[in-house]
Amino acid sequence: MRAIEAEGLTKYYGPVLAVDHVTFHVERGEIFGFLGPNGAGKTTTVRMLTGLTRPTEGTARVSGHDVVREPRLAKKSVGLAPEEPNVYAELSVWDNVMFSGEIYGVSGEERRERARELLELFGLYDRRKEKAGKLSKGLRKRLSIVMAMVHDPDILFLDEPTAGLDVPSARLVRGIVRSLGREGKTVFLTTHNMEEANSLCHRVAIINRGRLAAVDSPERLKIVVERSHSVLVSFSERPRWLEGRLRGLRGVEQVVEEGDKFRLYTADPPTVLEGVFDLARSEGLRVISLSTCGPTLEDVFMRLVGGS
To answer: How far from chain centre, in Å, is Cα 29?
Structure first.
């Protein structure tokens, strides 16, 4: 039995088509990324899968249960941490977790044990007596994830879990997501962070204007743009004419300035490397750094969604 199955999932808001006959599945134990530009239908899809919004057409099953016909059974195996932390500001950190556990039907002793374990894991146990409203946004986001995990769900929906977090907090959350995957939990992750999706997800789906553009592993999707290799180079000096000369090198398709470096897109990195060294020698420039890069998940994303 698959963790999540969506077939022809569709949602209209009045005359506006937000999600257009989306079909995909998520295997048990899979970390599944759901990517798309703003307004593409990501949040609406998550709301339908978690029973918060009723589909206009199509079906969705979570742990084998239809989210419309069997909502209580479907929700029992699911935890949801929305992008905006859904904590109760006037309650303490501890009471937020207790209340969430009570809603999910976790017994008193188990609830306390889970709360202690999760708050320690997320670095919040020492702040358990503080009111949630006094926490920073990053800490409230951590608390929101704890609340989604208190009943030990098989499937965890995380909506932009690292957005707005500082580097240590983001690393903590990513490490926990990897641990959940190793434990056999299913994680449905929406994110704008392409590197995060690339490093965490077994497969990703890209949605654009309500329709799925692709579903596959990050590495397989990169084959779509396999010719989008690049050479990243920086020089000891940056004369005005340099960018124009780089654009004129044989094999260079596009030049993008990135800080103190230039990224040269090409289907033929060896030819471009030769041209870069020839240019440096002829003009008396010193190459400070040089690297070649294959296509990234961001390249795939931009190829599939264009300027949307």
So the answer is: 17
Cα 271 to Cα 252: distance, rounded to the nearest angstrom: 9
Q: Which residues are paired to 57 by β-bridges?
A: 10
CB 65 within 8 A of CB 221: no
For the domain made up of 224-305, give the CATH fold: Alpha-Beta Plaits (3.30.70)
Question: At a CB cut-off of 8 Å and minimum separation 6, what does 189 contact?
Answer: 31, 32, 33, 34, 158, 161, 177, 197, 200, 201
CB neighbours (10 Å) of residue 226?
A: 11
- pLDDT tens, 168-215? 889 999 999 999 999 999 999 998 888 899 899 999 999 988 999 889
CATH class, range 4-218: alpha beta
Residue spans per domain, the chain = 4-218, 224-305
CB 164 within 8 A of CB 144: no
Q: Which residues contact 264 (CB under 8 A, 6 or more apart)?
A: 230, 231, 232, 233, 246, 249, 252, 254, 255, 272, 276
DSSP per position, 172-188: HHHHHHHHHHHTT-EEE
pTM metric for this prediction: 0.79
